[in-house]
């Protein structure tokens, strides 16, 4: 695992219920191009990864959440012209990470923005936000995952990680 992956995952681990990082039974990540078509690629990546992990039955919920997280990152967290902001070849602006433990699955999307996801959306304010374009995606994330959250990145990386947790049957 390279430093890029472990640096990204550290704030994620701090925000989740206590887990032993060595107990991760699987992890996979992919870089996504700074185009809305990347959502299709993220879903495809989810399908193949969950299939390898024997979690095909969770695909629909996980893919819906991943689609929303990736769409939010692409719509709201990228600079106006990604080529002028360093280009996607050197350091992809958006990265999708999937991590599996024996009883949980985490989907995490890293993006370059330090802004809070969804503006003022929070699970407690769901009713007033569910009709707004910016709140509807996170309402779906909140509805289909067991929990979700976000953290700013630390160290040399700038941006944030938005994650969603799914509990798995033993």
Task: Provide a short characterization of the protein structure.
The protein has 170 residues and is of the alpha+beta class. It has five helices and five strands. Strand 4 (147-152) and strand 5 form a beta hairpin.
- Overall geometry comes to globular
Please report the number of helical segments: 5
Largest sheet data? 5 strands, antiparallel
Strand order of the largest sheet: 1-2-3-5-4
Low-pLDDT regions: 82-90, 120-133
SSE order: HEHHEEHHEE
Structural class of the helices, strands and pairings?
A: alpha+beta
SS elements, strand count: 5
Mean pLDDT: 77
Termini separation comes to 27 Å
* Helix amount: 25-40%
* Rg over CA atoms: 15 Å
Report on the architecture of this protein.
The longest helix is centred in the middle third of the chain and has 18 residues, at 59-76. Strands 1-2-3-5-4 form a 5-stranded antiparallel sheet, sandwiched between helices. It has 170 residues and is α+β, with helices and mostly antiparallel strands. The protein starts with a helix and ends with a strand. The chain is globular, with a radius of gyration of 15 Å. It has helices spanning 3-15, 38-52, 59-76, 126-129, 133-144; strands at 26-32, 94-100, 104-111, 147-152, 160-167. Helices cover 36% and strands 21% of the residues. The protein is built from 5 helices and 5 strands.
């Amino acid at each position: 695992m390279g430093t890029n992956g472990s640096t990204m995952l550290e704030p994620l681990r701090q925000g989740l219920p206590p887990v032993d990082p060595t107990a991760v039974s699987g992890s996979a990540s992919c870089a996504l191009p700074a185009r809305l078509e990347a959502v299709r690629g993220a879903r495809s990546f989810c399908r193949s990864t969950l299939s390898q992990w024997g979690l095909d039955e969770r695909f629909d919920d996980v893919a819906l959440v991943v689609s929303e997280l990736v769409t939010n990152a692409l719509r709201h967290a990228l600079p106006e012209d990604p080529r002028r902001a360093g280009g996607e070849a050197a350091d992809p602006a958006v990265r999708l990470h999937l991590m599996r433990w024996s009883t949980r699955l985490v989907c995490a999307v890293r993006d370059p923005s330090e802004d809070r996801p969804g503006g003022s959306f929070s699970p407690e304010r769901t009713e007033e936000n569910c009709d707004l374009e910016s709140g509807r995606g996170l309402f779906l994330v909140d509805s289909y995952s067991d929990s979700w959250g976000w953290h700013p990145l630390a160290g040399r990386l700038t941006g944030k990680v938005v994650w969603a947790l799914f509990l798995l049957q033993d």
